[in-house]
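[Meeting: bench + compute handoff]

Bench side (C.D.) handed over the final construct sequence. Compute side (W.E.) agreed to return the predicted structure before the next meeting so the bench team could plan truncations. Sequence as handed over:
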Amino acid sequence: MDNVMNRKKEFMAYEYKEVCADGSRISFLIDGYENFGWEPDGNIYENMETVSNLYRQQKAVLRLKRNRKIINKTELTRLQRNFEACVNEIEMMEKSKTSRAAMYALIIGAVGTAFIAGATFAVTAQPPQVILCILLAIPGFTGWILPYFVYRRVLEKQTEKLDALIEEKYDEIYSICEKGNKLIY
C-alpha cells in the first residue's frame, strides 16, 4: 500500500480535439488521427441523431487527446490538416453522387408537373380543349415516370466516375498518414 502512495505520476499536458463524423467513419478516423499523435480519449463517442431534409443520419463525436510536447508538432499539424481536407473532399464526392441525380430527377418531375397543369387548364377551359389536354398530358405523365429511371442512370454514371477519384483520395490519405507516422516513431 505504501508503495502505491509513494509512486509519483509524471505530469503530461494534453491537447484535446473533438471530431463530429458519420458513425460508419469513426474507425477510419481513429486510424487516421493516430498517425498524427492523437489517441482516443476514454469517452470515445456519443451517438447523435440528426434529421436532414431527406433522411436520418447517425452522427458521432470522436474525442481525441495528444501530448502537447510532441516532437514535429507543426509538421504533424500540417499533415493533419491535409488529411482532414482529403476526408472532407471524399465526403463531398460521396454526397455529389446522389445530389446530381436527385437534381435531374426533380427538374424532370417539375417539368412533367407543369405539363399536367397545362393539361388540366386545357380540359377545364370553356369550351374544353380535349386535343390540347391529351397533347399536354402525354409529356406530363412521361415527366412523372421518367425521373426514377433518370435518377438511377445518373447515379450509376456518377458512381462510376467518382469511385476512381475517391480511390485516389484514399491513396493520398494513406500516404499522408504514412508520413505522419514516420514523424512520430
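W.E. noted at the follow-up: Residues 116 and 137 are 5 Å apart (CA to CA). C.D. will use this when planning the next construct.
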